[in-house]
Amino acid sequence: MLFPIVSTAGSLIDSLDDASGVCSDHRPGSKAPVVIQSTPLKKQEDRVPDLDLLETILAYNFQNRALLERAVTHRSWAHEQVAPGAEDLARQLHNESFEFLGDSVLGLVVADYLCTAYPEVTEGELSRMKHRLVSAPTLANASLRLRLGNFLRFGRGEEKSGGRSKDALLADVLEALTGAIFLDGGLAAATAFVVHALGDELQRANPMAAAEADYKTMLQEKLQAERLPAPRYTVVETLGPPHRRTFHVELSWDDGSAKGEGRSIKAAEVAAAKNALEAMGKRETLTAKYEDG
Description:
This protein folds into two domains: about 50-210, Ribonuclease iii, N-terminal Endonuclease Domain, Chain A, CATH 1.10.1520.10; about 215-290, Double Stranded RNA Binding Domain. The chain is about 55% helix and about 10% strand. The protein is built from twelve helices and three strands; from the N terminus they run H-H-H-H-H-H-H-H-H-H-H-E-E-E-H. Helix 2 (about 65-70) packs across helix 9 (about 165-205), helix 5 packs parallel to helix 9 (about 165-205) and helix 7 (about 135-145) crosses helix 9 (about 165-205).
């Protein structure tokens, strides 16, 4: 493994007495803590995750447990704790800003790893490998392996809808935890966590595997081989706030169509291309059976 595993040993601290949303910046070299104003909460029964066990799974002990608690808190839980319409207060409790930060930290760590591991490959090959490693399916699989869904704190509605097994939410919590660890221990600690969480995927990453996973390229080459026009991608719907949008794309080709969704237009297009290839494969299998029969 190319990255040294930085020691993250530290003394465990007691959990906060309340989920006030106080979030301090304890990164090395920070001049002063950044404190978010405490948020008055409704009194209701709360499912508090086992943070001691979670730290063991993460292989990291937090100096500030409030960061860890917030990293596993979904917006549905936060909105149940504050008055209707109190968006600013809810944002102080849930993990979406940590997801935003963690997404960038993950990208940096993975890019650094790939540049070190594959100094001779092209920028395009590096981009394909990075895209695959930080994609939602990859992060969701790593999150499942660490059983992070068991520690998520949801509101009643999301809990009933099976949020703990949703790939998108599993990927989100891995990003949020990366962001929280970066805030708590800096880039070295975040790097160690990313290597810990994505170790298997990092070891398997290579230009050939990334190319094989490039569904858009595979689809275009398949259509070209059949002398068909290039596929057409159209954004048909955009949902969510600007910092957290989900794009829905419709893909059409000569005699078929497929749909996909993702956090970016490119991710949605890749999902649509994957679905199109799967649909083509099933159709070809059925055609072959019919002809043989």
